[in-house]
Amino acid sequence: MDVQRAKQIVSTPSSDVEVQFNGVSVWIDQVHEDSKTATVHLRGPGEERTEVGIEDLKEVTH
């Protein structure tokens, strides 16, 4: 994924876009353009957040 697409997903109020990190569905909380990373957390219960490389995020199309 690229930085611009990650920013679009974060700014979209709908949760219809599925994003995965290492095959696991995550929510993008914040995009850090300077470091090309994003703060994400798992979909579902649990609020543990982690910072990952945006290039490691994949948008899932159904």
UniProtKB/TrEMBL annotation:
It is found in: Spore core. Residues 44-62 have a biased composition (Basic and acidic residues). Residues 38-62 are annotated as: Disordered. InterPro entries: SASP_SspH (IPR012610). Induction: Expressed only in the forespore compartment of sporulating cells. Keywords: Sporulation. Its main location: other. Belongs to the SspH family. This is Small, acid-soluble spore protein H. The gene is sspH.
